[in-house]
Write a structure and sequence with these properties.
It contains 6 helices and 6 strands, in the order H-H-H-H-H-H-E-E-E-E-E-E. The chain has 182 residues and is of the alpha+beta class. The strands form 2 sheets. The chain has a 4-stranded antiparallel beta sheet with strand order 1-6-3-4, with no helix packed on it. It has a two-stranded antiparallel ribbon with strand order 2-5. A hairpin with a 5-residue loop joins strand 3 and strand 4. The longest helix is centred in the middle third of the chain and has 25 residues. The radius of gyration is 26 Å and the shape is elongated.
């Protein structure tokens, strides 16, 4: 199947994928031990059941089966490597959905209000000795609170987000004026 055909799966593709997933999950719940072989067999059964409905072409259903196998194998490897379950695996997707929703909501909001609320939140959560990207700071060394990457300001400047991890938060590790030794 070409890239163009792959991108033009029929409108029933999502429903068919979900039906296939439900069928495979239902069957795997009844089994005590799930291996890649049993997973492949159950996916083949789901493909056959979907072909009997004749809502999609054989190639489309086969492609959905490939997608389903990829996703379920990824889940099995995740569970095997981390000992975590489906909820934790899906949490990765949930955080992406939350980020997209936030971006969409902010795109239609009054930008002045958004900026004012962001500033208020920064001021309220600001701890003494903590610096936030965008703030003005005098020369010195700053350490990212997330990844410990060092940032050197040679003159009074705006703090930029961490170039290593994108974090917004720093602490000062040197002061502008050298301390006098006693």
């Amino acid at each position: 199947m070409t890239d163009t055909e792959r991108n033009q799966l029929s409108g029933k593709a999502l429903e068919a994928y979900d039906r296939m997933l439900e069928q495979v999950q239902g069957r795997l719940r009844t089994m005590q031990d799930t291996t890649l072989e049993t997973l492949e067999g159950e996916i083949d059964n789901a493909i056959e059941a979907e072909q009997e409905l004749r809502e999609m072409t054989k190639d489309e259903i086969s492609l959905l089966g490939t997608y389903l196998q990829r996703d379920l194998e990824h889940l099995m490897h995740f569970v095997d490597e981390t000992g975590e379950g489906l909820a934790e695996w899906l949490q990765l997707d949930m955080s992406l959905l939350e980020q997209r929703l936030t971006e969409r909501l902010l795109s239609v909001a009054d930008q002045t209000l958004v900026d004012t609320l962001a500033l208020r939140q920064k001021l309220e959560s600001h701890e003494a000795g903590q610096y936030i990207a965008g703030e003005v700071a005098t020369a010195g060394m700053f350490q990212c609170l997330n990844c410990e990457h060092m940032l050197c300001l040679t003159s009074t400047s705006h703090l930029e987000p961490c170039e290593a991890c994108g974090s917004q938060y720093y602490k000062r590790v040197t002061s502008r004026w050298p301390r006098k030794e006693s």
